[in-house]
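User: Sequence recovery, please. Input:
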């Protein structure tokens, strides 16, 4: 793992965003997207910035976060391509993926293996306040926080407009709204279950629990549904340490996490859960968050994270020259 000093040195060089003259630009919460024609193909270039979002708000930037997410996604795209085709063409820079342009389907497929969460939209918040039906999944009485479900559950979420809040809804509600066909929904649902099962299996080899995650899908130029965006990264997933799970659960203690729940918890402790002014995040919290992202990469992939301190934006200009100058 990188040293604390290297992480601190990178704070002034974090990538907050890009503004390339390249086709049509769309800015997501943490990704800058560019769609353009290149070599006879409609492509999407995605820059994974160092922005961190929580409670549907942009909070700050975290050193090396974009590179970590992009390289974890690269690992998982390779590990799951036999289950579901994906949009991947190449990774021209540690923070960039280029994929074929797809029409994104407006439903995120969220798979959950455990009764948990910290926000007021989480399954745990719903359950502890008496709710037993969550997105069409009927949950038994007498469950405890962080308890494993008998079977993983699918809790679809409609994708909000930029700046809005996603909404967890059942399959029947999504079909009633007409945002997606039953056939497409069921293809995505089946793929999501298989992808989650593979994720749980691979993570377990490294002593990690893949608690929950989300998947996004789109249709390619031939109308085929493919996996897009990212997969099994600390931004889209929750991870716990397997060797401490049972003891902490039995004691009613919080699980040891290797995802962005660390910063979410820090924000919640400051009284911020999405409304009002975003608290300023101190350097030590940024550093600890970065270390957890890097640790997640190394735990999940079994590889050593390698990165250089320096200007990410400048590096991008060089590595993307064949696109930017075409």
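Assistant: Recovered sequence (326 residues):
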């Amino acid at each position: 793992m990188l040293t604390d000093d290297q992480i601190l040195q990178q704070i002034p060089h974090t990538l907050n965003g890009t503004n390339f003259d390249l086709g049509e630009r769309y800015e997501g919460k943490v990704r800058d997207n560019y769609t353009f024609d290149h070599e006879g193909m409609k492509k999407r270039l995605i820059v994974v910035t160092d922005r961190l979002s929580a409670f549907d708000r942009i909070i700050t930037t975290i050193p090396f976060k974009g590179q970590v997410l992009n390289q974890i996604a690269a690992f998982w795209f390779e590990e799951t391509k036999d289950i579901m085709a994906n949009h991947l063409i190449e990774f021209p820079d540690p923070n960039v993926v280029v994929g074929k342009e797809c029409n994104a389907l407006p439903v995120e497929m969220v798979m959950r293996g455990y009764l948990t969460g910290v926000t007021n939209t989480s399954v745990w918040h719903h359950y502890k306040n008496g709710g037993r039906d969550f997105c069409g999944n009927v949950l038994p009485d007498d469950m405890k926080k962080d308890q494993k479900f008998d079977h993983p559950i699918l809790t679809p979420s409609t994708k909000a407009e930029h700046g809005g809040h996603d909404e967890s809804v059942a399959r029947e509600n999504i079909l009633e709204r007409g945002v997606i066909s039953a056939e497409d929904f069921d293809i995505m649902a089946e793929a999501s279950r298989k992808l989650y099962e593979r994720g749980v299996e691979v993570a377990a080899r490294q002593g990690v629990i893949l608690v929950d995650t989300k998947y996004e899908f789109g249709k390619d130029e031939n109308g085929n549904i493919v996996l897009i965006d990212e997969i099994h990264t600390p931004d889209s997933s929750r991870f716990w340490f397997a060797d401490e799970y049972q003891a902490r659960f039995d004691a009613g203690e919080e699980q040891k996490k290797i995802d962005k729940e660390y910063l979410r918890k820090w924000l919640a402790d400051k009284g911020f859960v999405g409304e009002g002014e975003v608290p300023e995040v101190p350097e030590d919290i940024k550093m600890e968050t970065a270390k957890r992202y890097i640790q997640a990469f190394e735990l999940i992939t079994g590889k050593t994270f390698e990165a250089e301190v320096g200007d990410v934006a400048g590096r991008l200009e060089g590595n993307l020259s064949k696109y930017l100058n075409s």
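The chain has a mean pLDDT of 94.
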